[in-house]
Amino acid sequence: MKNLTLILTLFLLPFLGNSQDVVNESLEFNIPFDNAEQEADFIALGGDRIDMPAPGSYTLVRSTPSASSVRDGIDTRDSGDGLPLLLDCTVVPDTDLNCRADLPPVDFVFFHENAIVNSFGTWLPNNEGDLDLNALTIIPGNSGCVGDPVTITRTYTATDEVDPNGVATAECIQVFTIENTIPPTITAPADATVFNAAAATLAPANLGTGVGGPSNCTNHAPVVVTFMDVSDQMGATDPMYTITRTWTATDDCGLTSTADQIITVDVSLTIPTMGEWGIMILALFLIIFSVVVIRRRQTSTQLG
Q: Most buried residue, 14, 38, 181, 286, by most Cβ within 10 Å?
């Protein structure tokens, strides 16, 4: 994580909202702060709505509706019963996720249409009405691996500026827990039978290499593929045996998948080399030639 840096321009994060509905201001920071100025930037973006996080690295994102957020125009959600601002927070439940990329975007239209039970204020695009909506998402820098989950807190805030009893504010807090528990995939090469136990013959370059799929989470490092051989050969003179080659794919969370390749080694019948084939053909030719010569001599003797 970088040190505390306030991005003064509007930084659009795809997993926090799309460019048509939500505008995001993002801040990356470390706790404890490096200086008072950095702490002031944090407070300016987060306000007094959040408690000071535990030591560590974080991304803080404040989301507000864009000018095109309200699809249906004016909508007061005022039931006429004189009740103050009321939210139903069950529509934004706590959720377990597998990857950071699974974090759903901030959706103010959904929140307005489903969470606001009652308000006096009217919600207009870009928070120009007298009912304002915003969201604050705090993302810690944990790995997201098993045992080191990322616990993301997203706080939705609705502010009704025309409540008869004064400005009314209500919040819904949604917690996302991210922990990658899905291992990468691995595909072993096809099984093989070889008639030569030489190292070059048995090498993956000759018999194929296992193919590891990508990590389940796109933000993780590439998968590492390794292999290990286990042989059932009874002794150095065993003419036929099996090697089980186990291919393993490991992601940067330490999650693994394995697949086996079975290699049958049969040296009971040694296949001659090209040179050996040449010698055998020459020997066969000499034998045939010798037989022909002997037969001719025998025939000549009989005729004489």
A: 38
Do residues 202 and 122 make contact, with C-beta atoms less than 8 angstroms apart? no
Look at residue 201 and give its three-state secondary structure. Answer: helix
CA separation for the pair 249, 141 (Å, rounded): 25
Please choose, from the candidates 121, 208, 228, the residue with its C-alpha nearest in 3D space to the C-alpha of residue 170: 121
Please tell me whether residues 21 and 71 are part of one structural domain.
Answer: yes
What DSSP letter does each residue of 133-192 carry, written as one string? EEEEEEEE----BTTB-EEEEEEEEEEETT-TTS-EEEEEEEEEEE-B-PPPPEEPPPPE
The structure tokens 């004489």 sit at 304
Give me Rg for the CA atoms of the chain.
37
In angstroms, the CA 261 to CA 225 distance is: 14
Residues 247-261 have pLDDT tens digits of 999 998 999 999 999
H runs (alpha helix) in the chain: 36-46, 108-114, 199-202, 204-207, 274-303
The pTM assigned to this predicted structure is 0.72
The residue range of the domain holding 120 is 5-178
Q: What is the DSSP letter of 102?
A: G
CATH number at residue 232: 2.60.40
Q: Can you read off the two tokens belonging to residue 298? A: 């025998």
**Last residue in a domain, options 160, 178, 196:** 178
Confirm whether 192 is domain-assigned: yes
Q: Within 10 Å of residue 143's Cβ, how many Cβ atoms?
A: 16
Length of the chain: 304
Q: What is the pLDDT of residues 63-112, one digit of tens each?
A: 998 876 655 444 555 544 567 788 999 999 999 999 988 999 999 989 98
